[in-house]
Amino acid sequence: MAIMAMNTPNRDISIDFIKGIAILNVIIIHTVWWSGDFYINRYSILRQAPLLFDVFVFFIVAGMLSTIKQRMTLTGLISKLSKQYIIYLIVILIWIIIAKLSSVALDPIEILEAFSLFLFTNSPGVEGLASTIWFMKIYFIIQIIIYCLQKVKMKSIILTITVAITYLFHFFSSTTTSYDAISSKVNVISFYYSLVVIGQIIQSKTIILKKNIIVLVVLLLFLISIAILFGVNDIQTEKFPPSLLYFTICLPAIGFIFIMKNSAYVVNIREQKIYKLITWAGKNSIYLFYAQSFSGSLITYNIGGLARVLNNNLITILLVSLLINFSLSILGAFILKVIVTRTFIAK
């Protein structure tokens, strides 16, 4: 899958670039939504705007990569999931060590549940870790679905079916409570798999876009984004579970990804430092994803003291929090990658 991809030759740099923007934006999202909860209004554009390019992007990219790569074997799938699970276990062990060093009481049942990705729901001492794991649960399932359906060529039909399922279960969940449990799960899976199919379609359609067309499309996407921000009170409520409106919210990002995939912009800036930072983040997004859950939690625990030091100035608090979170996330990603690559998984 996209977020888990290790360094390999002949990588598609546009995909690394898109992944890099997405994971760096995740750090911004968790800064304004975790520690930012203490000093930024929930409905502020500072909290809502970053959600327009959220983790759903990784499912689109996963679809793009599944189109590029050769058909995966069952052995290959098991190997990939095993590597991802080992990384997860290392992160869980780091959480347990931090909790013990911080004298946080851990329930033995919680510790046992933590070793199962699908049972992990609580992480005392590093609260942000558990609240990010929902993504990995869906991610594992989606990878299995991609493997099972990789021989199916009619992507448009699959997309139609998944969107229809989303509509169906969304309708039932809004009219009766008896369908709530199953509709929530099926709605989430079908929604994110529909994004995978969209990614496959984007990757299979190559269109050379002229510069003036790109400018017009970007302007249009910007206007659509503004309209969404003013028309939706809280994107976060549409995200859990993803509603039909949330698909509309994803459209500007889908358009942006299509432009990045079909323009020479990414190639033209490959020698610039910002490009190197973003593509590095894309190649190491799995490590940044876990690292930011620790750094974001640390900032949240200390936001009160930080605010006092900065005289409760909102902008200053936000900028300093972002600087700390980016710095610690990058440092943590380096450390985590070293631990993983030198102990369990070869580069």
Domains (count)? 1
> Can you give the helix content as a percent range?
over 70%
- Give the biggest beta sheet: none
The unreliable regions are: 1-9, 174-182
| Mean pLDDT reading | 81
Q: Shape, please?
A: globular
Structural Rg = 20 Å
- Count the helices. How many? 16
Quickly give the structural class: mainly alpha
Strand content: under 5%
Order of helices and strands: HHHHHHHHHHHHHHHH
Tell me the span between the first and last alpha carbons.
Answer: 16 Å
- How many beta-strand elements? 0
Summarize the model shown.
This protein has helices at residues 13-33, 45-48, 56-68, 74-101, 108-114, 127-148, 155-175, 180-204, 211-231, 235-239, 244-261, 265-268, 273-283, 285-301, 303-309, 314-343. By secondary structure, it is mainly alpha-helical. The longest helix has 30 residues, at 314-343.
